[in-house]
Design brief:
Layout (H helix, E strand, L loop, with lengths): L7 E4 L2 E4 L10 H5 L2 E9 L2 E2 L2 H15 L9 H15 L4 E10 L12 E10 L11 E11 L13 H12 L4 E6 L4 E4 L3 E6 L2 E5 L9 H12 L4 E4 L4 H5 L3 E6 L3 E8 L2 E2 L3 H14 L1
Parallel strand pairs: 7-8, 7-14, 11-12
Antiparallel strand pairs: 1-2, 1-6, 3-4, 3-5, 5-6, 8-9, 10-11, 10-13, 13-14, 14-15
Protein name: branched-chain-amino-acid transaminase
Organism: Breznakibacter xylanolyticus
Enzyme class: transferase
């Protein structure tokens, strides 16, 4: 936080106090969830894997029909992120959220495909990715299913499925919750991609199953293959088979690798997961 105790954001390239952002009731993200976003881990004032985040949000803009060239270049965006972090004095580590939304106008049919963007930052105390000491206890949310489609690989403002899954997690005193697709297969968790070890092989749902095309997912798959670990991308996983896993972990761009200790009364190890985590930390240092 700055010395004046004011938190700043970056709205369409301008650093302003967060309470000065002018968004009206005509905002399409507010009205229709007409937006896409990225969450980016920053160390010091340097965003991690920004090029991959930038590429994904450009693909998301294309998929939603927004004009991709209305977003600044990756180099410009990197400078805006650095300025935002410096202004807020988040010098250890931070979480930056990049939200892109279609400009005002129209009802369901947009009046324009030009977009605005908003960068927000919150501090993180840890100076690197840290694997959780206490394993996550997961449940399975089955009240709704995620449809595999042209938007399912991306993070969009239409996030009620994840909200409902988070409420299920809260009601059941869980620390993680898995999400199923419309075929009833487990494909991801609320904010992470899913991996599991079985007989020394690593498995993860394929993007075609409906899971988010995660930045950390790609990094973990590439790292595992470099370590000569066989990786199989599956059309999701049944509850029966996830319960038979030797180890389970989830990944995202903010927390890195987080291991799962249990589903209901079942318990899992984290030996191979921890080895993979240590190799990942070594690869980025």
């Amino acid at each position: 936080m700055t010395a004046s105790n004011t938190n700043y954001c970056c709205f369409d390239g301008h650093l302003i106090p967060v309470d000065s952002v002018k968004i009206t009731t005509a905002n399409r993200a507010f009205r229709y969830g007409d937006s896409v976003f990225e969450t980016i881990r920053c160390f010091g004032n340097r965003p991690f894997a920004l090029g991959e985040h930038y590429s994904r949000i450009k693909r998301a803009m294309q998929a939603t029909g927004m004009e991709p060239d209305s977003l600044p270049t990756c180099d410009v965006l990197e400078k805006k992120i650095e300025s935002l972090i410096n202004r807020n004095r988040y010098f250890i580590s931070s979480r930056v959220r990049l939200m892109v939304f279609r400009k005002d106008g129209g009802l369901y049919t947009p009046a324009t495909d030009q977009s605005s963007y908003l960068l927000e930052a919150t501090p993180i105390d840890q100076s690197t990715f840290e694997m959780n000491e206490k394993g996550l206890v997961a449940g399975i949310f089955r009240d709704m299913g995620k449809s595999p489609d042209v938007l399912s690989p991306y993070k969009t403002g239409s996030a009620l499925l994840y909200v409902m899954a988070a409420k299920y997690k809260q009601r059941n005193n869980l620390t993680e919750c898995f999400i199923v697709n419309t075929n009833g297969m487990i494909i991801e968790s609320i904010s992470s991609n899913l991996f599991w070890f079985k007989n020394d092989k690593l498995y993860t749902p394929t993007i075609a199953s409906g899971c988010v095309d995660g930045i950390m997912r790609r990094q973990v798959i590439a790292l595992a293959r470099n370590l000569n670990i066989e990786v199989f991308e599956m059309p999701g996983v049944s509850e029966e088979n996830i319960r038979k896993a030797d180890e389970i972990f989830v990944t995202n761009a903010i927390q890195g690798i987080q291991w799962v200790v249990g589903i209901d009364d079942l318990r899992y190890f984290n030996i191979k997961t921890k080895q993979l985590y240590l190799e990942f930390i070594k690869s980025i240092n």
